[in-house]
Amino acid sequence: PASRGGRRPLLGFDPVPTHSDDTLTVPEGYRTQVLIPWGTPIRPSGPRWRKDASNSAAEQAEQVGMNHDGMHFFPLGGREGNRRGLLVLNHEYVDQQLLFPDGDDEITAEKVAKAVAAHGVSVVEIERRDGTWRVAESRRARRVTGDTPVDFSGPVRANHPSLRAADAPAGTLNNCSNGYTPWGTYLTCEENWNNYFGTEDSDWQPTTSQARYGVSRTGGGYRWHEADSRFDLAANPNEINRFGWVVEIDPTKPDAKPVKRTALGRIKHEGCTVTESRGRVVAYTGDDQDGDYIYKFVGDGSWRVQRALGRSPLDHGTLYVARFEDDGTGEWLPLVHGRGPLTRANGWADQADVLLRTREAADAVGATRMDRPEWIAVNPRNQDVYCTLTNGSGWNSAVSPRKPNPYGHIVRWTEHRRDNTATTFEWDIFVLAGDPEYDPSVELDETNIFGSPDGLAFDDDGRLWILTDVSNSSQNLASRGYDNIGNNQLLVADPDTGEIRRFLVGPRGAEITGVAFTPDQKTLFVNVQHPGEATAAYGEPTPDNPRAVSNWPDFDPEGRPRSATVVITRADGGVVGA
Ligand code: FEO
Ligand code: CA
Ligand code: CA
Ligand code: CA
Fold it and tell me: What DSSP letter does each residue of 259-323 carry, written as one string?
């Protein structure tokens, strides 16, 4: 390994080979433990998981949700914090074939209620005893679901006319990636929220703004509107405006309402990565759609002063969208009512209007189209910013270097004077993902070929953890150039040398996502999402055979595949990855 100016090399494990088996593999000398699969009671005394999926909606609301995604570990008890804490994690969406005993041919109100309860966020208190992590009884344990009462804050207030709907504001849906703040709260981000809404009213047509967000009569196929008018676009037209936001949750206050922070814009938020510069809060967020944009929010003044004044640092500030020039420079363009094209004369009523229609505002100022921006991570050693561009059709600019781009890449930028509040930056491409057998521009080999990078996070030592989400229409298929890449994976990069090594390969059909660490970095938590999802390479699962692709992690012929958190430690008790 390359020397790091006398420092020990960052990467100290042997790379794991790719595979397409229904198993999860890690390097020699590492141990794994499956924790909190879907359906686990969030308190040990709670309702037990039933492997035929017959738990009711009310039981699901007391159990860990489905399709684990972004996650953070909040240590508890001072020095105890390496073996006790709150694990807070998102549940992105539901697989209705697996969620209900009889699948989803018929949608009922009870099924909608259970699906809503399987979304959102879980807060579980966990502790390590005798080397094993387990869920503890806790007054802080909590589920936030698609039905939990919420507040709105920032320029789009709860009483805004666009948010007036049949019921009080409630719930968060399609909780993809996440963030956390310097003041100890968790951020959960609403991504493909348009999928939950639809209508059977043939007169209904999407507005221009709705069309820009992909809102359609059929939605994403969940068909909740057939049994619950809350999700009917014609009957309850404003409900959908309550989604598309970053939502703040205080994990230590189980009775506090989650708050939708509207100043951060309304997009298909992948995640929300918070850093600070000159005392101000800076929050980066990607809009994961082919051709959509990267945003950042810069708080007004010191976040500590804002908090001392009783204000949220996420309610007062400026939202920007990124423009990447072909010469390696870039600019942050403000999305502020009255500035540039965002004027009353051009049809922008006020800042709330700009935020409710964030995508159109970004179109108007001339943002740069990207290949599906997913997670964003800030290097703790030098404040450089990295963003995964998972894949896409390829756009007409240097930051989108392949057309099409089936494998994705990671872009990196340095803000002017390393100040993350700056409005200009310089960028380069950190790595092109893919398989050199199909694309000679790829500089990877059997120790690290990967595709469709999605999750991305730095640990405190500066290792860059890369998590992949090859879709199940491509996974392991030669016709997609993915036959050598294997199942989805977790890799680790040294950002200084560019070295990348494969650390983990997941089971079939699953995405690897949601990475978190204990403060001593001796325990790593990672999520395995949607094992058993319909995968072209393995045939379609059906209600009669939900195990067609994968039966991880229980391998119970009577059970079904379940998303779960995997706990990874070193047998010798060392720092994970070192
Ligand atoms: Fe939910 Fe873009 O991943
Ligand atoms: Ca993702
Ligand atoms: Ca993805
Ligand atoms: Ca996902």
Answer: EEEGGG--S-B---EEEEETTEEEEEEEB-SBT--EEEEEESS-HHHHHHTT--TTTSEEEEEEE
Q: Which residues, in sequence order, are bridge partners of residue 123?
A: 88, 142
Residue 247 C-alpha to ligand 3 middle, in angstroms? 20
Buried b or exposed e, range 389-407, using 16+ CB within 10 angstroms:
bbbbebbeeebbbbeebbb
pLDDT at 540 over 80: no
**Tens digits of residue pLDDT in 495-517:** 999 999 999 999 999 999 999 99
Closest CA to 178 of 91, 295, 305, 252: 91
pTM comes to 0.97
Query: What is the 308 CA–ligand 2 centroid distance (Å)?
Result: 34
Query: How many whole angstroms from its chain centre is CA 503?
Result: 20
Residue written as tokens 């999926």?
53
3-state secondary structure 538-562: CECCECCECCCCCCCCCCCCCCCCC
Q: Are 556 and 565 in contact (CB under 8 A)?
A: no
pLDDT (0 to 100) of residue 5: 59
- 191 in contact with ligand 1, CB cutoff 6 A: yes
pLDDT digits (tens, 9 = 90+) for 273-309: 999 999 999 999 999 999 999 999 999 999 999 999 9
Q: Per DSSP, what are the bridge partners of residue 493?
A: 464, 500
248 lines ligand 1 (CB under 6 A): no
69 C-alpha to center of ligand 4: Å? 7
Does the Cβ of 288 fall within 6 Å of ligand 1? Answer: yes
Sign of CA dihedral 275, 277, 283, 289: negative
| CATH 2.120.10.30 assigned to 33-191+244-570 | yes
Alpha carbon 107 to its chain's center: 27
- What is the pLDDT, as a whole number, of residue 548? 75
Q: In what order do the strands lie in the sheet with 273-277?
A: 273-277, 280-286, 294-299, 317-324, 329-334, 424-432, 409-415, 385-389, 373-378
Q: 492 by DSSP, 3-state: which?
A: strand
Q: Is 387 in the pocket of ligand 1 (CB under 6 A)?
A: no
Nearest CA to ligand 1 atom 1: 176
Render pLDDT for 14-72 as a digit per residue (tens, 0 to 9): 999 999 999 999 999 999 999 999 999 999 999 999 999 999 999 999 999 999 999 99
Which residue is it, tokens 């008890």? Answer: 77
What single DSSP character describes residue 17? P
According to DSSP, residue 368 is labeled: P
Tell me the CA–centroid distance for residue 289 and ligand 3, in Å.
10
